[in-house]
Design a protein that fits this description.
Order of helices and strands: EEEEHEEEEEEEEEH
Number of helices: 2
Number of domains: 1
Radius of gyration: 16 Å
CATH class: Mainly Beta
CATH superfamily: Jelly Rolls
Shape: globular
Helix content: under 10%
CATH topology: Jelly Rolls
Strand order of the largest sheet: 1-2-10-7-12-5
Strand content: 35-45%
Distance between the termini: 35 Å
Largest sheet: 6 strands, antiparallel
Low-confidence stretches: none
């Protein structure tokens, strides 16, 4: 596994070692020893999640005010543009965002540490998105920043479409108010 830092140094792009031949491929999507050797981190994951969304669906930007979740995210069908926003007030990259294309084809994963907001836009006909979390989902503490917050200026690759968002996500707050 190769771990590559992003502009937010704690956010890592992970590329597994893939073994493939004419029959298909095999790779370990998570191995605690390999993850730790590549990243220097040893998170404890407590929950696995799986979502499926159609083209143009935009989910996020989600975070938990208490019990912040670290997330190891990947796509097993389709492609998404995945975004992490640093909302840690003491961080040198506070208010910055990174975006990465994750797909079944590139098999990349993204490690998003606790204290960041997260969202994604589905670019393919549909996408299945898997992620492991370091804390349990705590709906009483879940918060959402507006995906189109003018202060963050996230360059979502919308290609002229109006994204489909949930009612909850459409009511997302402003970054300056968190």
């Amino acid at each position: 596994m190769r771990a590559t830092p992003t502009a937010i140094s704690d956010v890592l792009v992970l590329e597994p070692t893939v073994f493939g031949d004419s029959r298909g491929f095999f790779f370990e999507s998570f191995n605690a020893r390999t993850f730790s050797a590549a990243t220097g981190l040893s998170p404890t994951f407590v929950q696995d999640n799986h979502s499926k969304s159609e083209r143009g669906v935009l989910r996020g930007l989600h975070y938990q005010e208490q019990f912040p979740q670290g997330k190891l995210v990947r796509v097993v069908v389709g492609e998404v543009f995945d975004v992490a926003v640093d909302i840690r007030r003491q961080s040198p990259t506070y208010g910055q965002w990174i975006g990465e294309y994750l797909s079944a084809a590139n098999q990349r994963q993204l490690w998003i540490p606790p204290g960041l907001a997260h969202g994604f836009l589905v670019k393919s006909e549909y996408a299945e998105f898997l992620y492991k979390t370091t804390e349990y989902y705590a709906p009483d503490f879940e918060r959402c920043i507006a995906w189109n917050d003018p202060e963050l200026q996230i360059a979502w690759p919308l290609d002229g479409i109006n994204p489909t968002v949930s009612t909850k996500d459409a009511a997302g707050g402003r970054f300056s108010k968190i």
